[in-house]
Design goal:
78 residues, alpha+beta, 3 strands, 49% helix
């Protein structure tokens, strides 16, 4: 994996996207520290995505009676 500075990445974004789409992984650094990775995109199988969502729904426990998602969010903020 090759690292490149953020300023240079901005200047060469099109080239970096081409390289990533060809399979290269590119690290983008900010002030010398790795900040992001530019990696090749994967083909997404929507059937697989929806199948995984359905698995999550089946495994999710129902909320206690009278409890809402909003209640849980507020409780988490305390």
């Amino acid at each position: 994996m090759k690292n490149i500075g953020l300023f240079e990445a901005k200047q060469k974004l099109s080239q970096l996207v081409e390289r990533a789409s060809a399979g290269e992984r590119i690290g983008i650094t900010r002030r010398g520290k790795l900040a992001a990775l530019l990696v090749p995109a994967r083909d997404v199988d929507l059937k697989d995505v929806f199948s995984r969502i359905e698995q999550i729904r089946k495994n999710a426990k129902p909320l206690p009676k009278g409890m809402t998602v909003k209640n849980l969010i507020e409780e988490g903020r305390r």
